[in-house]
Amino acid sequence: MPEMIRNIAIIAHVDHGKTTLVDAMLKQSGIFRENQVITERVMDSNDIEKERGITILAKNLSVHHNGYKINIVDTPGHADFGGEVERVLKMVDSVLLLVDAFDGPMPQTRFVLKKSLDLGIKPIVVINKIDRPGARPDEVVNLVFDLFCELNANEEQLDFPIVYSSAKLGFAKRELSDESSNLEPLFEMIQKRVAPPVVNPDAPFQMLVTSIDYNEYIGRIATGKIFNGRVKAGETIVAIDRQGKQTRGRISKLLGYEGLKQMEMAEASAGDIVTIAGFEEVGIGETLASAADPQPLPYVAIDEPTLSMN
Ligand code: GDP
């Protein structure tokens, strides 16, 4: 159900606490990165599991909380990945802009924030490391506001919600004077302020391929958001390239994110972010669509990084 899905990205300058925050979110939802690594190793020693291809370490991840599935997609933080950032941001309905309460906004914050604002995204601002001695959260909020203004944020974007956090100590709050011992206020903010994906589960299946990877056991894998309809493992569908050429194929694996891991799914539906194996030719920007009614999704024109080099 799309109403119960939230697709977000976390934007942060290196060291501002993205990994720590994601770990704390997973932990509050009962998933530990340490345990996950152990499971990985156990599974890696098992050839059958290997063959099934379910031990791929995900770039993206998901957190289940209060009945919601929060997909957190990975964003490259550098200008070198210009085109990729836009493709990734097309999958999400909001971003958490994570800023160190001591350091304030930094160059990498600025680059991805600009892309997000240009795409009309309304970010949630998370002021992290408020436990740090010398932290100056109020001043940093003002600096973030100035940055939004500089980047031509519109009025809605400027009215950003703020959460204060210590990812390290595992708590978040709406106001600096609040008492809090967990990340619940952050989860609530994500549930309330991030719109559910705008998709139609009853239309014919369509997924936009956002990234391509290769796995030695299952071959080429395509990841992206399902914009419409439903899809099943083993189903025959159609890949439509950017010239409109259609290639039929069978989904050999349908994978979804569970915590830090990609797991096989029997079925997935609109709004979710999934990975599909079985198409050895498929590329970024192409559509995977229902065989009964194959319609391409609009390709998002992107300024490729090679063109902007000078
Ligand atoms: P990333 O590069 O954004 O993924 O940053 P990390 O999550 O790796 O964090 C960078 C450093 O900041 C690590 O040493 C963390 O322990 C520390 N850190 C992260 N969050 C907090 C926090 O809320 N408070 C304090 N004091 N340190 C933090």
From TrEMBL:
Belongs to the TRAFAC class translation factor GTPase superfamily. Classic translation factor GTPase family. BipA subfamily. This is Large ribosomal subunit assembly factor BipA. Coiled coil: none annotated. The chain holds residues 1 to 310 of 603 of the full protein. The keyword Secreted does not apply. GO terms for molecular function: GTP binding; GTPase activity; ribosome binding; rRNA binding; tRNA binding. It comes from Trichloromonas acetexigens. The keyword Nucleotidyltransferase does not apply. A 50S ribosomal subunit assembly protein with GTPase activity, required for 50S subunit assembly at low temperatures, may also play a role in translation. Binds GTP and analogs. Binds the 70S ribosome between the 30S and 50S subunits, in a similar position as ribosome-bound EF-G; it contacts a number of ribosomal proteins, both rRNAs and the A-site tRNA. It catalyses: GTP + H2O = GDP + phosphate + H(+). Its main location: cytoplasm. GTP binds at D15, H16, G17, K18, T19, T20, N128, K129, I130, D131. It is found in: Cytoplasm. GO terms for cellular component: cytosol; ribonucleoprotein complex. Monomer. It comes from the Bacteria. Residues 3-198 form the Tr-type G domain. Its EC number is 3.6.5.-. Keywords: Cytoplasm, GTP-binding, Hydrolase, Nucleotide-binding, Ribosome biogenesis, RNA-binding, rRNA-binding, tRNA-binding. One of its GO terms (biological process) is response to cold.
